[in-house]
Amino acid sequence: MGALEILAILLAGGAAGAINTIVGSGTLITFPTLIAFGVPPIVANASNTIGLVPGSLSGAWGYRRELKGQGARLLRFASASAIGGAIGAVLLFVLPDDAFAAIVPVLIVLGLVLVVTGPRISKGVARRREAKGGTLREHGPWWMWPVVTLTGVYGGYFGAAQGIILMAFLGIGLDETLQRLNAVKNLLVALVNGIAGVLFAIFVDVDWLVVGLIGVGAIIGAQLGAAYGRRLPDNVLRGFIVVVGLAALVAFLLG
Question: Could you tell me the pTM of the whole model?
Answer without folding.
Answer: 0.81
